[in-house]
Amino acid sequence: MRVKLSGLFFGMLIVLSAHAQDIQFSQYYQAPLYLNPGFTGITPQQRVTFNHRVQWPNLPQAFATYAASYDIFIDELRSGFGIMATTDKMGSAGWRTSTVGLLYSYKVKVSDNWVFSPGLYFGYGTNGIDRSRLRLGDGLEFERDGQYYSIDPDQDRIGRQSYFDFGSGALLYNRAFWIGTAFHHMNQPNLSVLGDVSRLPMKGTVHAGFRIDLSSGMLRSPSYRVSYLTPSVMYRWQGKSFSQFDMGVNYHIDPVSVGIWYRGKPWEKNVINNMSSDALIIQLGLYMKNLNIGYSYDFSISELQTTSGGAHEISLVYQFSTKPVQRSVKQKYRLIPCPTFNSKEGFWN
């Protein structure tokens, strides 16, 4: 890629502006630890998740995002512990943001049916570009081992930035309803790669969902298949200039689900006086004994609809157990539920 140095710094401003907001997942309930630290350990077993999103594939060097996490509930401590890693790549200059963090949550039994789960996140991140992939076209560059380097001192201003990150969240739930809030980047880390200060604004999230059983009271037969709806909403904001609203519903007839979702702000008008909308999302899911598989596609309904190509996203959630839960623990906490988008029984049932 050949660019003038001034054009490079102009592009850097665009990239920094784009990264002033966090990555997002359309299947946010399939990335529970990324959504809210309060979800840490909310599983009857151990859990591994993987999420991959490709956004705007028709544009050059589309956004590619990966996230992976592991969490476990320790019943003796009534606590959940987790670890999560994310990486986000964009552009031909190899701009990448990567994070790794530890999560913790504690389960408080509010009543026989309700649980309160506060959580914390402590992370470390790094971001910046791959300078060896830049072609400045200024006559001051040279090639070595297939990579390009510049002797222009101004290029030395472009580096990578490392930072610590802190977040918190809380979740209140029973077997059929959950509501939570989370606050990420509470310390507003500095992300500037130019040697100055560019703070990442704190992100706030409020989300809720519930389950509606469509087969209550029906006589179950050997061929009976559970069916239900899981509506959910999420509102998030970051800094003073960004906010977004997601809402939708999944229909389940185990082990399959299909859903339709909307992302945007219907109460606002955009620059051409139309309703401010981002995407309509179609989701498909397969819920097996220990493995959940999800796929979604975002149909862009904003001004980018003819050029962006929307977004593809896949998710995998695998639950496993290394030892059975002790019977005494089951009896003590059997009434504490687990919020879920499928019909599997949760822990403490």
Compact description:
With 349 residues, this protein is mainly β. The protein has helices at 5-18, 32-35, 327-332, and strands at 46-55, 63-74, 79-90, 95-106, 108-109, 115-128, 141-144, 147-150, 160-173, 177-184, 203-210, 212-213, 227-238, 242-253, 256-269, 275-287, 291-300, 311-320. The chain has a single domain (5-332), classed as Beta Barrel (Porin).
Strand order of the largest sheet: 1-2-3-4-6-9-10-11-13-14-15-16-17-18
Assign a percent range to the helix content: under 10%
Number of helices: 3
* Radius of gyration from the alpha-carbon trace, in angstroms: 22 Å
> Would you give the CATH topology?
Porin
**Level-2 CATH architecture:** Beta Barrel
Give the distance, in angstroms, between the N- and C-terminal Cα atoms: 58 Å
Strand content: over 45%
Describe this structure in words.
This protein has 349 residues and is mainly beta. The protein has one domain (5-332): Beta Barrel (Porin), CATH 2.40.160. The protein has 3 helices and 18 strands. The strands form 2 sheets. Strands 1-2-3-4-6-9-10-11-13-14-15-16-17-18 form a 14-stranded antiparallel barrel. A hairpin with a 5-residue loop joins strand 15 and strand 16. The longest helix has 14 residues, at 5-18. The termini are far apart. The model is unreliable at 1-19, 271-275, 328-339 and 341-349 (pLDDT under 50).
